[in-house]
Amino acid sequence: MRLAFPADFKALVIGASGALGAAFVAYLEHDPACAEVIGVSRANTPGFDLQDAASIERLGQAIVARGPFHLIVDATGALTIEGVGPEKSLAMLSADALTRSLCINTVGPALLLRALAPSLAGGDAIYAKLSARVGSISDNRKGGWYGYRAAKAAMNMVLQTAAIELQRRNPALRVVALQPGTVRSKLSAPFAAGVPQMLEPHESVAGLMRALLTLPQKTGAQFIDHQGHDIGW
Question: Are 160 and 129 within 8 A, CB to CB?
Fold first, then answer.
C-alpha cells in the first residue's frame, strides 16, 4: 500500500547531477502523483558544497520556501576522492583521505539533514539518504575500504539518531538509509570487474521507490536495499 502522500506531493532530490540522483528526478517527473520535483546539484543556484557548512545552511534557507516536501532524497556521496580510492589494508590508511571521506560522506550529509529537516511535510513523509551495504557493521565479512565503511556507518548512526528526534514531532516520518545495489555509474566503474550483475540507475531507483512508498511506520531509522529487504546495522 502506498504511503498516504497527497495527490500533489512535492519531492526534493539533492545530488541530482549524479547517476542515481538524476534517475530519482526522472522517476518522480513521471509519477502523476508528484506535483513537483526539485533537483539540486552543486551547479544549481543556490549551489552547495558538502565541505562548506555555510553553503549548506544557505541551501536550507532557500529551499524551505518551496516546500513542504513529502519526500527528500539525499543522493550525495563519493567513493574515490581526488583520485584516491578505498583502502585495501591498514597499511594504506591516510589521515587526509580518512578525513575527506568523513567530511563528504558523513559531516556534509549530516548538515544537509539539519538544514532540510524544517522543509519536511507533516504526516507520512520520507527522508532518504543513499548509504551502502559496506556501511553495515554486522555485514562486514571482507574487510578493507576503511574510510568509506566508517563514513557510511557513521552516517547511518546520524540517521538513526535524527529519526528518534524528528519522530517525536512526526511519528509518521520515515528516515531511511538506502543500499542501491551495484549501479553502473562513474562511482562504481573502477570496481565493476567481477560484479555478476550491474544495475542500471533507473532499475535501482525503481526498486528503491517501490520499497520507500510501501515502508511501514517504525520507530527509528530503517536500512533497506533496492529490493526492499532490511539490512542489519
Answer: no
Distances (CA, A) of 67 to 117, 120, 143: 11, 7, 41
Q: What is the pLDDT of residues 182-218, one digit of tens each?
A: 888 766 566 655 566 789 999 999 999 999 999 999 9
Q: pTM score, two decimals?
A: 0.93
3-state helix, strand, coil in the chain (%, to 5): 40, 20, 45
Round to whole Å and give the CA distance between 212 and 24.
Answer: 12
Q: Which CATH architecture has domain 9-225?
A: 3-Layer(aba) Sandwich (3.40)
Q: Spell out the domain ranges in the chain.
A: 9-225
Hey, what's the cell of 109?
Answer: 550529509
The Cα–Cα gap between 37 and 83 comes to 33
C-alpha cell at 96: 587526509
